[in-house]
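User: My instructor asked us to take a sequence, write out its structure as tokens, and then describe one feature of it. I'm not sure where to start. Here is the sequence I was given:
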Amino acid sequence: MTTKRPTSILHTGSAPLAARLLRAAIIEPWESVDQVIESIERDSALLGDPTREGTGAWHLRHIVEVFRLHARTVMAGAGDPAAAATLPPPEASIPDAAEWSPRLARDELLADVETFCAWLAAQSDDTLSEAFNYGRRVDVMTMLSVMLQHITWHAAAVHYWRKWKASPG
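Assistant: Let's start with the prediction itself. The structure tokens for your sequence are:
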């Protein structure tokens, strides 16, 4: 016996809540990107090289890249390629290690989330519930859930990288 899983915990009427949750995953004082950034503010080298997969810095950079990929795909999938083009391409978050900083990655992520949330607020319920292809049939609300989970998952990876890999003892 298999249980049919719902496509999303969010529905079209919860778009404002979803936007607040996306922002909160970045700016809340606990269990957020900001908490991780503040914990390493004095020594961002503790996160490692942002171009080396698996380091704390890589996970933080990856949050920005994948958020951009998802947001651009969602906007285009919802029929608004012009809005999608207002976000930088995912690879724009890959400066060399000398130019990269955790604060810069956080600021870029928050700016991208704000752009996406402004777009989200302007969409009709029909747009939010219309399915489009992104590996499989999904809608905007399903992707919002995925985007939120992705930020949270990788922010935790940054935290544990610092705790287990970069801390002495």
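For the description part of your assignment, you could build on this observation: Residues 140-166 form the longest helix (27 residues). Try explaining in your own words what that tells you about the chain.
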